[in-house]
Design brief:
five-stranded mixed sheet; mainly beta; 46 strands; seven-stranded mixed sheet
Amino acid sequence: MRNRHLKTIWQLLWGAIATSLLYACANMASPNGGPYDEQPPKFVSSTPAPGQLNYKGKKVEILFDELIQVDKPTENVIITPPQAMQPVIRANGRRVIVELEDTLRDNTTYTIDFTNSIADNNEKNIFENFSFAFSTGDQIDTLEISGVLLDAATLEPMPGITIGVHTDLADSAFTTIPFVRTSRTNDRGAFTIRNMAPGTYRIYAVEDVMRTYKYSQPGQQIAFGDSLIVPTFELTTRQDTTWKDSLTIDTIKTVPYTHFMPDDIALRLFKEKAERQYMLRPERTDAKVLTLRFNASVDTLPALTPVNFTPSEASWYYLQAEDERKTLKYWLTDSLVWQQDTLSLSVDYLKSDSLNQLQPQTDTVNFVMRHRAKAEPKKKKKQGDEPDPIEFLGMNLSPGGTIEMTDTLSITFMEPVADLDSSLFRLERMVDSTWTAVNFRFFPDTTNSLRYFILRPWQYAEEYRLEADSATVFSVYGKWNNTVSHAFKLKKEDEYGHLFINLIGVDTTAFVELLNSSDMPVRKAKVKEGGALFMDLRPDKYYARLTVDLNGNGKWDTGDYAEKRQPELVIYCPKQFQIMQNWQVEETWDVTAVPMKRQKPLEITKNKPKEITKKKRDYRNEGKASSSSNPNSFGGLRF
């Protein structure tokens, strides 16, 4: 009996143990594989060795401590001196293999700059700024120079641009021979040219898509330094901080290092005004309109001479310029002329020659109307039929509603008009609940004969209306206007803010532009008596940009390498201006206080730097197994 009870107890105990084990297995987590790899690959060895002298081979192998990959080697790996034949660069397990196709130069230091292209194969930890060098002679060059490349007009950092130096100091070297050493700008526009020999250099930048390592096409963006570069160095020290965590400093050590100079080179990238000017195919989609198109804006208007027709009047067209004077529309006024299917004209204009110089050119141009619309026969009217609607002369008046103090009222007609003067319009202002006629200036647009301006010194909170009676304005084709009544009013003074900027360090002709949050200019003011005044600003956040206007033409001008003329200097104010309603703000801006590379506020910088971030591990959940993810598992046990 006693043995029977003991047997029952043992059966119950083993059943409990089995149930516990089964429950434990059902909640088993897979191992997390140990600490997460957050370290980049480490250099182990190479052939040739780093800094090896008298190396004559053309193959470089570099071994790392783990499997690696090379991201876009043709774009990210920079080999200098530049290679005429593209090298072969590939990852093979833990190795990077570089095979040079060019013949190696004697007594030359070669640099393979991998930038940030090498990362481990699994976690993509980047080996930042890895560079490798060897020499074909009995010494290796070790000097460096560095700096930043910015867009000349906007001070945007310019990534992916080739930076090069020449020991040949002649101006022609930039356009005739490849650089002796090169680098490429990173996403911050920064660059470093490594392993330079002692000497004197000129420095350049070029948008080198074809990899010629020189300025070979007029359309390329370029930059050039005004001063000679002499690389040098000094032995100095700096503070090296070790952190226990993100908030706690462990130790601060003073460590020696080599400071290479110059390290503050600032280059400004620009494109020369080298756009070739020529005439595109003429158009005549409307019988009354002849259209000449040019690939570039024309400063001098073409002269037209009829060939196969004789106009009845000397002024036989109205000119309408569009698209910054790249498109010229000639509205014909003589019906006997525009009714012809083919019109031949002799066009005298300026065209770029092989040296990109504007030269007089005469072409005979035929305007053919191929798709003249056929007039449909009119149906006879029956008694009681509605009359045909009148097609009035179209016109557009702007702006309307509530306008700004800086606005100019404009009228744009859809067709040229004849005998137009200010007497056909009435401008009235509301005075004590009564519309009262006021004086105004009325004048045509000098580039668009279909547009006219109405100008008057507006006052705050005034209310106006512009009127014209029906059938008072006629187009040259016989259409007339419908009744016009265009009302608008101006904002109150307390709806605006005003800004005055005191400028320090400006001693030449200049202007200041206020910019919006998209880095687009919204207002411009000349620098007068040491400052720039902006009245009647909408409440908003503004930024400021100063342009040193050397030729006084009121716009930024690009540079010219042949003339050794740099683009006009642009300076950004690092601070933001907050304008509120009914505020009068006065600020002081020292334009020399901040280096060029730190001037432009990050908020309006479009080419923002890419941060290299490490992958975050989910330590809490990474070991949990999902029983629902595998239909062949139950409670962590596989069958």
